[in-house]
Design brief:
By secondary structure, the protein is of the alpha/beta class. It has seven helices and 17 strands. The strands form four sheets. The protein has a seven-stranded mixed sheet with strand order 10-9-8-5-4-3-17, covered by helices on one side. Helix 5 links the parallel strand 14 and strand 15.
């Protein structure tokens, strides 16, 4: 019996040592691996408190009372990823648009290239196989990459809506960094980018409703109801949001990740008629119902913005929720048809002129198992 307890103690000691090593290794990874990113320091936090009343106790807050986890989760679908191949138009180059033109290339999930005149605007690029701080494991993409990082054209303005891995990808950004001229981000996200080698004078960090004009286009960071955090030990350390941008000819509004609330009424009141709206549609669940919109709520957001065209994003690449991969677009198109909304649904990787978006309403996802 004594021998048994001696062996048991040794086993428990080995298991304890392994646990300690794993914990220390995990902490070191979160603190020092560049893909996770640095967090704002004390001086920056003091600046945040001066710029917005929604920063207190060392973190950013939403405008309304907010609960991240709100209840029991939806049942996990057996079709979270498709068995069949999704149609993707693969690109090895994208030409610049002409003066006065507006083009959009949806690249899957929330990644999009907006071409406003001769200006290339890249939004939330995740152009890799995994949504993760590393390149070899994580949430795996279920559609092909339409545009590889090495094929991204020269980018005049990069916009990042927040620091989550499915919107801000270290593997993509380190490849395209030298082809990016200017960057627009919410407060605190600049700290991460500076740690990745982006130059401070070209990174413009904004609070909600703040604006910056670049290449004749005015970018305004808009509010959203969401949260941030690449490091699970430090959520809410950086800000999140959507963006409105416009030149003399066109205007675009991207919601970013957000729950449904009165922000859309205020965006419409502030900016008036909007040409193109990129609306979040996907990764919802009743378990976190305040930080993402259900498709019917996305339809209401479109109705309140009243854009000339609306393009659903945040689906078609990664499965982060429990719903089926095509549930977001099936439900949104149904509600958009009921309400008479101008919903456009181009394929991933397809470049479309703004004036031609109304001709891209094909339900290309139908029949894909």
């Amino acid at each position: 019996m004594k021998k048994f307890f001696r062996i048991l103690r040794k086993i428990l000691l080995v298991l304890f040592v392994i646990l300690v090593v794993v914990i220390i290794g995990g902490l070191l990874f979160l603190l020092f691996y560049p893909g996770v990113g640095k967090l704002p320091g004390r001086e920056q936090r003091e600046l945040f408190a001066q710029k917005t009343s929604l920063f207190s106790d060392g973190k950013f807050h939403n405008e309304n009372d907010f609960e991240l986890l709100t209840g029991k989760w939806d049942k996990k679908s057996s079709r979270r990823t498709p068995d069949d191949e999704i149609p993707v138009i693969r690109r090895d180059h994208i030409e610049r648009a002409g003066e006065g033109e507006l083009r959009v290339t949806w690249l899957g999930h929330s990644s999009s290239l907006i071409q406003m005149g001769a200006v290339n605007i890249l939004m939330d690029p995740v152009l890799t196989t995994y949504s993760s701080p590393v390149s070899f494991v994580g949430t795996k993409r279920f559609s092909e990459v339409a545009l590889k990082p090495e094929d991204v054209p020269e980018i005049d303005v990069l916009f990042l809506s927040h620091d989550h891995y499915d919107h801000m990808d270290y593997q993509t950004l380190k490849v395209i960094r030298d082809r990016v001229k200017e960057v627009v981000v919410p407060l605190g996200v600049d700290t991460i980018l500076l740690g990745w080698g982006f130059e401070e004078e070209h990174v413009h960090a904004l609070a909600w409703w703040e604006s910056v004009t670049l290449n004749g286009i005015t970018f305004t960071l808009t509010p959203g109801q969401h949260y941030s955090g690449r490091n699970p030990l430090r959520n809410y350390a950086t800000l999140w949001g959507g963006v409105h941008f416009a030149d003399a000819n066109h205007s675009v509004y991207y919601t970013g990740d957000t729950g449904y609330y009165d922000v859309f009424e205020r965006v419409h009141e502030k900016f008036g008629e909007i040409d193109l709206m990129l609306v979040e549609d996907g990764q919802y669940d009743k378990g976190w119902s305040q930080c993402h919109m259900f498709p019917e709520e996305s339809a209401q957001a479109i109705a309140q913005i009243a854009p000339k065209q609306a393009l659903p994003v945040h689906w078609g690449a990664f499965c982060l929720g429990n719903h089926s991969w095509d549930d977001p677009i099936i439900r949104l198109t149904k509600e958009a048809e009921r309400l008479g909304l101008p919903l456009t649904t181009p394929k991933i990787g397809e470049t479309v002129e703004f004036d031609d978006l109304s001709n891209h309403r094909e339900h290309w996802w139908e029949g894909i198992e």
